[in-house]
Amino acid sequence: MPRAAPPDSSRPVSFGTPVAVSKDTKPTIAPVVGPDDPRRITDSGIEIERLYTEEDVAENLDERLGEPGEYPFTRGVHPEMYRSRMWTMRQYAGYATATETNARFRYLLDHNATGLSMAFDLPTQLGRDSDDPLCLGEVGRTGVAIDSIDDMRRVFDGIPLDEVTTSMTINAPAAVLLLMYELVGEEQGVPAEKLGGTTQNDILKEYIARGNFIYPPGPAMRLTTDLFAYTRERIPRWNTISISGYHMREKGCSAVQEVGFTIANGIAYVQAAIDAGLKVDEFAPRLAFFFNGHNNVFQEVAKFRAARRMWAKIMRERFGAENPKSQMIRFHTQTGGVTLAAQQPENNIVRVALQGFAAVCGGTQSLHTNGFDEALALPTERAARIALRTQQIIGHESGATDTVDPFAGSFFVESLTDEIEERAQGLIDKVEELGGSVECIPFIRAEVEESAWSYEERYKQKQDVVVGVNEFVTDQIDDVEILRVDPKSEQEQLDRLKAYKADRDHEELAAKLEELRAVCQGDGNLLHPIRDALSADATIGEVCGVMREEFGEYSEA
Amino acid sequence: MATARENSAAWIRELYEVWNTQGPEGMRAHVWHPDIVWDEGETFPDASRFAGAGRVAERLAERLEVVDTLEVECVDYTPLSEARGLAELVVRGTGASSGAPIDFRWWHLLELAGEGRVTAVTEFIDRDAARRAAGLE
Fold first, then answer.
1. Is the pLDDT of residue A33 over 60?
2. φ, ψ for residue A123 (rounded to 5)?
3. Domains, chain A, ranges and CATH?
4. Is B97 on the interface with A (CB under 8 A)?
5. What is the pTM of this model?
């Protein structure tokens, strides 16, 4: 019989680098225990009991619940919730050129969407022009290409900006896109104070999960808080930031981590704004949040309720916010892109319906429901319509809107809400111990990566069943129509940009860019010189280029 | 007197002790044949096949980069021939950052070379699939 060489040590080998193991706190991700383990455990490591009774709900529930529309907002941010006003049905859209995106926006508005959500291509998200050699092949792929105010003008052609609210998924160059939007509004005769919408503007989660950052955290946080100050003065209805757990969940974090790390990031933004001289009740009412919707309806409902309660306490007790609007989490939900399967894609319609239902029962202020084909490509018009209809069915047929906070008082959901709050608070405490979100990006990233690994292992082992993917599979390939972006649209964008760049007052442009540079070197609000540069026909690449030169670029390494 | 099955089970347990104390690099140095083929098994969605001890060590290290400790215990070994057998393993460990527990069963269908090296591993997370592949069912 062959023999192996004997081991030369008796210590277990360590594979990863422990960052901050917290053995004394409850788990926030599920253990990997294989498919035969009889326990029912959520992705957050919460073991679900066979039956929940009164004994599973801690004392003083009334205090933890409060009334809807009142502190601590567990039951929702409005006393009537959807009985008086439906959530905003905001479908994320945008691809190829401004003209094609304009057509999709008009299509959605014609089908009773009540808000717009703008998807940008990667070059725009990274503050680069479409003619940048690094962007070849990426123009118009993941969203619309916006190089200049001319593109923004085309996107909103025929859409009065005082009649819609627009959410923009834009972060590192958020200030640039907001100012383009403001300038287009002015051209339409819409004063800035009538503009409504949201810039995502959440750079911390870019470092943690999404990867579309430009500058190092210091100047990036300066841009964030400069935008807070600018909008307070000029665009008071604008939601200055959408503090996003969505992308961390997409990257693989659990529901508890989503709450914990999102709120930890929120604390960092509030502190940065206070440090920049703003008063909490002046900016906090315009903070918005963005969460993911996954399939476990009960945990998701509990997650939203716990997040509201936690934020209210933090804002009141830690930051001294007095305005109830500063204490309430108003949030957008998007159904989980990562939960969509390429196999048997029509099953995704059901997943999206469950996720949307959970978001509504959890009290979301706006909702995007994914197209069922989005594991394959950007959604077709048909898929986008079904997604919107899903929301309308939830709103008008499910009964979810008839009463406020419909799961309240359920032994199970109240127990889950408490569990999520306790575990998420443990994570926030850990982040605080490490110096806050800005200082402990590697810790948060490691936690999210471990959870993602755990998801993958649980799925591989069929501990977590994904219908049509690791169980109930078929050999048949479902043939669904998918959207293909016409490669000609990239060339059209390049041609238009070339013409735009040729037809400008180059001297004035250079002067405005130099003014921006000077402010970068000082401590003035950056949005004013950015606006002046855009008015002088600067492109996004030129504006962000000056700031790149002054602030440098962040690297994960 | 130990039976042949007991002897081979004891030897296989020693192999996995190398894993426990030295990780993939130890396996590469002492257990795996340089041309080992590691098959992630048909029951793994998106499974792949890796050839060569270096590539296999690299792949396993990638898979385990968020794990703190991971110990593998061979709890049963069924010899199928002199050069082939099915190992049933219990895997226990913790996540590197959260400390979340890891505890599951794993089956390795092993092929062995005369010089004391493992030449092929096919892994399974499903007992029945492992036994079917081994020709035991």
1. yes
2. -55, -45
3. 40-61+73-460 (3.20.20.240), 512-557 (no CATH)
4. yes
5. 0.87
